[in-house]
Amino acid sequence: MRLRKLTALAGVIITGSILATTANFENTALAQVQIQKCISRKDVMDAQETWGKAIIAIGKAYKNGRNYKALAASTVDRLYGYDQGTVLFKPTKASRGQFRLTRAQAISYFVKGIVPEDTGFALQPWSRVRFENAGMSLGCNDAVTMGNYYFTDANTGRATKVEYTFGYRRDKYGKLRIDLHHSSLPFNPAQ
Q1: Which of 29, 17, 37 minimizes the C-alpha distance to 173?
Q2: Mean pLDDT of all residues belonging to the chain
Q3: Residue 53 region by backbone torsions, left for phi larger than 0, else alpha for psi between -120 and 50, else beta
Q4: What is the pTM of this model?
C-alpha cells in the first residue's frame, strides 16, 4: 500500500514539474509573440497595399456584374476593426453625413447603401491606388500613418490626390485592422 502511495506521489511530482516547465515555456513563447507583434513600416505598407487592391477589386466586381456588395462587406470585415471596438472613419467624399462609425455605414460609402449621399467610392472604378507616406508612428500594438494617396481612374487614367490618416490596431491573430481612417481632398484656395 505504501509503495502505491509513493508511486502516486512521484507521478504527481513529475506531472507538476512538466506542467511548470510547460507554463514557463508558454510564458516565454508569449513574450516572444509580444516582441514579434511590434508593427513595422513593412507591416503598414503591406496593409496599405492590401487596402488599395481591395478597393480596385470591388470596382472590378461591379463592372463585371459580380457580387460587389458582398465583396465590399468582406473587405470591411477583413480590413477594419468594427467587430473589435470603435472605428473612426471620415471618408473623402462625405459632407452631410461626414462620419461612418458603423460597419453598415462604411460599406455604404464604398458601394452605396444606407447613407443617402453615398455614390459608391469603390465603384468608380479605380485601376491603381498608390500610397505616399509622409510619416508613421509605430508601436507594438498600434500604428498611425499619414500622407497622400493617389487613385487612378480606370476610365480616364487620371490620378486624384487625396490626403489620409490611417490608424491600425493588431487583432488577436496579429493582423493589422484599421481603427482610424480620415481622408480628404487637399485644400483648394480657389473654391
Answers
A1: 37
A2: 87
A3: alpha
A4: 0.80
